[in-house]
Specification:
46% of the residues lie in helices and 21% in strands. By secondary structure, the protein is of the alpha+beta class. It folds into two domains: 117 residues, no CATH class; 145 residues, no CATH class. The strands form two sheets. A five-stranded mixed β-sheet has the order 5-6-7-8-9. A four-stranded antiparallel β-sheet has the order 1-2-3-4. Helix 3 packs across helix 4.
Length: 276
């Protein structure tokens, strides 16, 4: 077999050159081995992290889908979103995965969640025990009260209705209403409520009391039972004063004097002053 001598010379040249290149590579590695090890370690770490996140997400979806199949009564619910909350990682490095599902009704929605290294959980019971309905009614009532009172008060003043999320309120609403029933303000007419008025630093005690009386008349017209009152005033020193445990009978012409007396350090038979 004939082999051209030019080809043989080329092979010899490449072998010699390859030996030279290998020497250069060896010298480079000897000089930069620390940087190479560190860089390689970082690269491997990033690859492992990526693979770990992807594998956890795939595993999370699988576990949540399997969990869904085991929930009795959850047939017909559609998955509307699957989210991964990396921002809420705790100190143990766990990641939270959530699957949101719903049906046609306003209260027919629940979530399935999985935290890495923990068991899968769901909130389907909130539909069965009508907790979704209760929270929807409370949210609607609070929004309605906020909108209605905004037209009665100065811009920086607002009202808070308390004693809503209680066992008594929940039991009452569940007795009268079912899932997906339409909200109505009459839902809360038989529920004892706490009324809180919060005013800004420029408001005097007399003005705050006047606003509380005005709101009381307004709630009376709506048929709401306000049993306890709180008045909160922002102070010029940055502190906040709250006059709490007021009753309906306390909203009289003598109330300003009683609140001023509390400011002077005196005690009242029922009203309590708290400073934060």
């Amino acid at each position: 077999m004939f082999i051209d001598h030019h080809f043989i010379n080329f092979i010899i040249y490449m072998l010699k050159g390859g030996s030279y290149i290998m020497k250069k590579v060896k010298i480079f590695i000897q000089k930069r081995w620390k940087s190479i090890v560190v860089g390689g370690g970082i690269f491997l770490f990033l690859v492992c992290m990526l693979c770990s996140s992807l594998s956890h997400e795939v595993l999370g979806r699988f576990l949540m889908n399997q969990h869904l199949k085991g929930i009795q009564g959850a047939q017909g619910y559609k998955v509307i979103e699957v989210s991964t909350d990396y921002a809420s990682k705790d100190i143990e490095g766990k990641t939270f995965y959530t699957m949101e599902l719903c049906k046609d009704g306003e209260d027919e929605h629940f979530t399935i969640s999985w935290t890495t290294f923990e068991k899968v959980e769901d909130s389907f019971s909130n539909i069965e025990n009508e907790d979704n309905m209760v929270m929807r009614f409370i949210d609607e009532f609070q929004k309605e009260m906020e909108i209605l009172t905004q037209n009665l008060l100065p811009k920086e003043h607002h009202v808070v209705i308390g004693e809503l999320n209680t066992k008594e309120t929940s039991a009452y609403l569940k007795l009268k209403y079912n899932n997906n029933d339409e909200y109505e303000i009459e839902s809360f007419k038989d529920i004892p409520l706490t009324f809180g008025l919060h005013v800004d630093v420029s408001t005097s005690l007399a003005q705050a009391v006047q606003e509380a009386k005005m709101l009381q008349k307004y709630f009376d017209k709506k048929g709401l039972q306000i049993e306890v009152y709180n008045i909160t005033i922002d102070g010029k020193d940055g502190k906040t004063k709250t006059y709490s445990n007021l009753e309906r009978k306390d909203l009289d012409d003598n109330l300003v004097f009683r609140l001023e007396s509390l400011d002077k350090g005196n005690k009242d038979k029922s009203i309590v002053l708290e400073i934060f």
